[in-house]
Amino acid sequence: MSAKHNTPALKHHFEDLGQQHACERLGIWMFLATEILFFGGIFGAYTVYRYLYPHEFEVASSHLNRTIATINTIFLITSSLTMTLAIRAAKLGNKGELIRWLFVTAALATAFMVMKGFEYAEDFHEHYVPGRMFQDELKSARDEIAGKSEEDAKKHQFKPERQKWAKELAVQVNHKHVDPGKVQLFLCFYYIMTAIHGIHIIVGIGCILWVAWEAWRGTIPPENYSTVEVVSLYWHLVDAIWLFLMPLLYLTGAGYKH
Amino acid sequence: MSIAAPQGAPAAAPVPPEPGPLPVNYLNNGHSIWSWLFTVDHKRIGILYLVSISIFFVAGGIAAGIVRLNLLQSDGAIVSEDAYNRAFTAHGVMMLFFFLIPAVPAVFGNFFIPMMIGTKDLAFPKLNLASWYVFMLGAALAIWSVLVGGIDTGWTLYPPYSTRASQSNVIPGVLGVFISGFSSIMTGLNIMVTIHKMRAPGMTWSRLPLFVWSLYATSLIQLLATPVVAITLVLLMVERAWGVGIFDPSLGGDPLLFQHMFWFYSHPAVYIMILPGMGVISEVLTCFSRKNIFGYHAVAWSSMGIAVVGFLLWAHHMFVAGISFYAALLFSLLSMLVAVPSAIKVFNWTATLYRGSISFQAPMLFSIGFVVLFIIGGLTGLYLATLGTDIHLHDTYFVVAHFHFVMVGGMVMGYFAGLHYWWPKMTGRMYSDFWSRFAACVIVVGFFFTFIPQFVIGYHGMPRRYPNYPQEFQFFNVMSTAGAGVLGVGYLMPAVYLTLSLINGKRATANPWSATGLEWVSQSPPPIFNFDESKMPVVVCGPYEYSLGVDQMGRTLPDAPTGAPAELHEGTAADGHGPTSPAKQES
Ligand SMILES: [Cu+2]
After folding, report:
1. A100, B135, B414, B434: which sits with the fewest CB atoms below 10 Å from its CB?
2. A21: distance to nearest CA of chain B, Å?
């Protein structure tokens, strides 16, 4: 066996580290292609319905929490930067630095998920969830203004337990031809897309911590930094998908006047 | 065509001496169940897939048997109408997702891609093992959903029936299909990276065996189409579980959108099923006619052409579902276009046979069966791609017959061709020559009797998936069921003689068919890392140099199988100073 085969990082079935890294890089890029197609399917479905029901999508989007989404966007963009700094540290063979940046990245990702959790809790608390909850809440609000003219309905003092979105939507449904079914359709996409994205974030956190563990064990010498690169490519994709989710879900209704 | 070494160089290499069987090969390297369940050897994983899909093939076959038996009488002979729905759905789901999709890529692709391109393993061995577990998890869910009552939606799972009306176990079944999709992606990714990055020295793109090209095209589709059906099935499950209206028109959804997204995968998926079969045929036809393939580049690129064009014609399943006339026109045109690369393959195979020294061993018989049945299946596809005739033929038994001609007549024949071609390499044993030829004939005859009548009744308007039919169709249905019985016997025969070959079959030599590919360089069964590690193969010429009588390493081929003329094989003079047996170096 020649000397090049003695690197512990080299797996037995590869000729040399160059081949191993080339395989890893190509593999992750192909995986990213499948991810794009996976999200592409649901983005495509979203686009179809957004085109068919632009008004309802705008109305539904306007009730989402844009503050949390903005903070989360900042978290994720920053985490992409720290991930890249981790690669740099790996290339330079600076183990301490590598582990530190990986932990910062994982922390930002965790912060994203915590904020997302708060946001889901708030949506749930407001009954802004498609299905029975949404329908009951909206029905109670609509019952209160049943038979009123648009002017009167707008001035109507709702019971204190009515949710803000339900009050506004009740008027729009009664007087502005807004179809509540299609508002729920938007909410379905909101929940499915953010949930799938959230699962990807959690997987990402796992991968980042795993790389940190490997780095701590010393199995990521500078010549084998491609492990970090592979995880970072995945992480950047997860970020990039969020950069599409943010405008599609949150900014669509940002300018909507009730 | 693609000899790169200067003339004479390949012929100078000596005939490899016939090495004895290895003391340690991939099969006897560990006998415990764990040595199989935790293996990362691509060959063992291929065998794991082979065993599993054989079971699913039997399961799908039993469901098909129920369907055919029930159709013996015009009012349903054996089961209730509800059970009939569940039987044909089980047949479709089992055969498509758990047999046809993994059949060739996961069994022969896994086993032979690394061997054919001259490397030790696939690029990601652990991912490969994971793919099998994911596959089995998906299959377990699907089978469980069948055992606890089944699904009655048909394999196409159209909403809103599947999401609102159906009382059957849609979610576990769909979840099973969803999960098994990831195994398909993993296999495709692994194969594609391996082909790109791990070819032996000298194995250029235009020296790749056509099987490798066809699997490259297949993997491309697996990678790019499967994720779309995955997300579609997620949406379907969410809609069914929570009663929201993603595809339900009464809640603002659009059922046509489901059909678009479903067929965006499921049309290219038929190419996941047929392309690997085509690759097998290119290997077998050249070997058993002792000729170079006619038009190597045309056959290779037609695989890629099918993969790419195959993505652009999904809506031909929806001509009568209410898509716009102009869209239908375009999809009709594109559907006809994909017939071109398919026809290129058929013409090139035919030209390969022309003036070849053909011998009719079982792999060759299965391959010829493939070509004949595929031609019929392909041409009847044009009737369905034509807008006018499709209105008449849509959702009739004509579609069923067309599909089965391509998938069973084509792909299952291709699978059996590959199984018989590579069986000696995989197991180190030869099977019965007589019984294998006989089985091939029985299968072809049974197939014709099963599906030709379905063209007739379909043309006369019998709808698919109906348990009842007018009395005048009974004759054809009985004929079809009788044919299915013959077909079933035909499929049982390989199960018997292949199993027997493991017990008392003659030991296979390294290259029993005198084939040119690198997979025949090592002994049968191959060593743990496919080749003698101190002498990894170096490729000097194209994949089918049968007329020169050399394999891809430029070594003279051993004697051709029975039936091929001996004069093809010229340089036997060099015995004695060939490479020493690699067995000695194996640790
Ligand atoms: Cu199709």
Report:
1. B434
2. 10
Q: Is residue A217 part of a domain?
A: yes
Grade residue A223 by pLDDT with cuts at 50, 70 and 90: confident
Q: What average pLDDT does this structure show over B525-551?
A: 90
Q: Is residue A106 part of a domain?
A: no
- Whether the CB of A42 is below 8 Å from some CB of chain B: the reply is yes
Q: Can you list the pairs that A95-100 forms with residues at least 24 positions away whose Cβ atoms lie under 8 Å?
A: A95/A215, A95/A216, A95/A218, A95/A220, A98/A212, A98/A215, A98/A220, A98/A228, A99/A212, A99/A215, A99/A216
**Quick check: is A4 in a domain?**
no
**Contact residues on chain B for A16, CB-CB shorter than 8 A:** none
Q: Report the mean per-residue pLDDT for chain B.
A: 89
Lowest mean pLDDT among A71-75, B276-280, B443-447, B579-583: B579-583
Give B70 Cα–ligand 1 centroid separation in angstroms. Answer: 27
pTM metric for this prediction: 0.91
Chain A contacts of B238, Cβ < 8 Å?
Answer: 188, 192
Residue A194 lies in a domain: yes
Q: Provide the residues around ligand 1 (an ion) whose CB is within 5 A.
A: B 267
Ligand 1: distance of its center to the CA of B136 in Å? 27
**What value does the mean pLDDT take over residues A168-193?**
88
**Cα–Cα distance for residue pair B576/B561, rounded to 1 Å:** 23
pLDDT for residue B24 is more than 90: no
Report the number of distinct structural domains present in chain A.
Answer: 1
As a three-state string, the secondary structure of A143-165 is HHCCCCCHHHHHHCCCCCCCCHH
CATH 1.20.210.10 segments of chain B: 39-504
- pLDDT average, residue stretch A54-61: 91
Q: Which residues of A touch B223 (CB under 8 A)?
A: 30, 33-34, 37
Q: Hey, what CATH class is B39-504 in?
A: mainly alpha
Please count the residue pairs, one from chain A and one from chain B, whose beta carbons lie less than 8 angstroms apart.
Answer: 104
Q: Which of B121, B239, B264 sits opposite A13 (nearest CB)?
A: B121
Q: What is the per-residue DSSP string for B409-457?
A: IIIIHHHHHHHHHHHHHHHSB---HHHHHHHHHHHHHHHHHHHHHHHHH
How much distance in Å is there from the Cα of B231 to the middle of ligand 1? 20
